[in-house]
Amino acid sequence: MNTHRETVTGSIETDISPELVMQVLSDPRRIPQWASGFADRAEPDECGCWRVIKGDKTFPIEVVTLDPARTVDYLREVTPGKKGGAFLQVLPGPSGGSVIVMTLPVPPEISAEQTLTILEQELKQLTNLCASL
């Protein structure tokens, strides 16, 4: 049995401040605005976690934000007892602004190249959303 799980990582540089990017990322209700392929809606649940609704599927996610490190992780159970998901870090840009780094797992039903394309689209949508605020 092969238990190797592949991931892809990409980044985007923007003039937007790290603080504004973190504000958007740490609000799960905004996920559908920049990751519409993942979520139609995100709602808080009674346990203090979040529910993501995509089409006719609903699943819980945990949002882990570490402000000093400028990281936001969106985690869900991928196999019994194992969590995985999207991992983001917002770095200060070398000449101001931000560098946003995201790592995603490659789902079994699509290729690493397709996953990287999705990741790049989501980063662009995230920067567009931040720029519109």
Write a structural description:
The protein is an alpha+beta fold and 133 residues long. The protein has a domain of 93 residues: START domain (Alpha-D-Glucose-1,6-Bisphosphate, Chain A, domain 4). Helix content is 25%, strand content 41%. It is built from three helices and seven strands. The mean pLDDT is 93.
Q: How would you summarize what this structure contains?
A:
The protein is of the alpha+beta class and 133 residues long.
Query: Helical stretch count?
Result: 3
Proportion in β-strands? 35-45%
Q: CATH class of one domain, please?
A: Alpha Beta
Order of helices and strands: EHHEEEEEEH
| Overall helicity | 10-25%
| Protein structure class | alpha+beta
**Biggest pleated-sheet summary:** 7 strands, antiparallel
CATH fold-level label of one domain: Alpha-D-Glucose-1,6-Bisphosphate, Chain A, domain 4
What would the principal axes of the Cα set say about the shape?
Answer: globular
Distance N terminus to C terminus?
A: 47 Å
How confident overall, as mean pLDDT?
Answer: 93
- The value of Rg in angstroms is 15 Å
Question: Which spans have pLDDT < 50 for at least 5 consecutive residues?
Answer: none
CATH superfamily membership of one domain: START domain
Strand order in space, largest sheet: 1-7-6-5-4-3-2
